[in-house]
Amino acid sequence: MPAELTDSTTPDEAMPPASRLSELASALWVVSAAFGCYFCMYAFRKPFTAASYPDTMLWGTGFKTVLVTAQVAGYMVSKFIGIKVISEMPPQRRAVTLLGLILTAEAALILFGLLPRPWNAACLFLNGLPLGMVFGLVLSFLEGRRLTEALTAGLCVSFILSDGITKSVGSWLLSRGVPEDWMPAVAGGLFLSPLVVCVWMLARISAPSKLDIAARSERSVMSREDRRRLLSRYGLGLLPLIVVYLLVTVVRSVRADFAPEIWTGLGSPAVPATFTRTEMWVALGVLLVNGASVLIRDNRRAFFASLIVCGLGIALLGLSLAARAAGQLSADHFMILIGLGLYLPYVAFHTTIFERLLAMTRDRGNLGFLMYLADAIGYLGYVAVMFSRNLAAVSDGVVSLLITAGWLTVSLSTLCLIASACYFLQLKTGTAAIPAEQAA
Known about the structure:
Layout: H1 17-42, E1 57-58, E2 61-62, H2 63-88, H3 94-114, H4 121-131, H5 134-140, H6 148-175, H7 183-190, H8 192-203, H9 210-216, H10 224-257, H11 259-265, H12 272-291, H13 299-325, H14 331-361, H15 367-388, H16 395-425, H17 436-439
Antiparallel strand pairs: 1-2
């Protein structure tokens, strides 16, 4: 039994040394399972972007742009569905639902190989539809814990690293003679077995302890009325944050989905190992910065510290764009720094901002609802960008869009972060602790 909490002790101080070792072992299990599960999921989503599909056009648009748009449209629809589904998902149904979603996505990739072009583009929509809810299910295993930021940072590192590594796998399969239309299904098949193992590991994770609940608040499934109440209370502060997330999502997605074209436009065509090398540096920086927020025990301070991290990322994005315009950055350094500038705020939303908002307000809710609300709007914006411009016409067009959208993100995000900080600074909320008798 943990030592009794008093007004002068924190949950960590009340924990015996043996319990701390047990918690560390549990945390390693949790982060390994979450990292592995989401890493493998990317093998069902991203490898197709390593191909160029140069021989096919549809309605005057490059086929790769059509494929990216189709998948992102499915992913975006999934996010809107997930606002309800993920926020209401009972814990005991998460693992089975995860496996069902992944198998559905792989079936869509097999159809993509079977059907002729350009009709097989619809299969990428069907592929994105189930995959959009995977992150919320995995995240549900991690939220509401004293180590949530560290655990979620490990999870987020998976989609930074896997974005590059699964592209490298796709490029490798193409170099081995796998046809472009079958390469995505083959890549997914390679990762199916390890994904099943990781889902099994997730299913064995215990619920947050009483000490976790004391520090972070209890997370519950949400009804429509719960969702409406949370938005009515904090909507004015959440709106500018969601605008920041929208802008960062669009630029991050352009950088990820059109990486080969961007590298070519920068004058340094990528080889398979390029994607992995650059994303490893980005992942390391994001893990260190965002994961460190777990060291801040006070929820209010951690929340505002995460807004500062977002501001630093936006500043780095602006400096990277300016340095590249002045000819002072190589293609490698530009892609690494712009990636770091984008992922610092992007991951801060996943690890800290919404997690600590719920913890400091102690309102009924869960992280899945807030993340899927932001994700739905973010991917809606990206789909709008895909529909409004033919990115595949020339590689320079992609680079131009990246730079223009990057500067827009710098200017608007700065204003939105200031507005949101001012709103929450004047808002009186609770702190990290609840009465000791409730935590016993």
